[in-house]
Amino acid sequence: MPEEHEDRTCERCGTRAAVYQQFGLHLCRRCFREMAPKMGFEKHE
């Protein structure tokens, strides 16, 4: 099996649900929403 499909867990909380791997984030949706402002992401409406 290729490496990128082996482990899809959030680096912050360890959950396996809804993990964002794009750009090497490896964060679940909840952790991403909490950490996004600190990482420089802005919310656009």
UniProtKB/TrEMBL annotation:
InterPro entries: Ribosomal_uS14, Ribosomal_uS14_CS, RIbosomal_uS14_euk_arc, Ribosomal_uS14_sf
Assigned GO CC terms: cytosolic small ribosomal subunit
Any Gene Ontology biological process: cytoplasmic translation
GO molecular function terms listed in the Swiss-Prot or TrEMBL record: structural constituent of ribosome; zinc ion binding
Name of a matching Pfam family: Ribosomal_S14
Cofactor(s) needed by this chain: Zn(2+)
Keywords: Ribonucleoprotein, Ribosomal protein, Zinc
Protein name: 30S ribosomal protein S14
Source organism of the structure: candidate division MSBL1 archaeon SCGC-AAA382C18
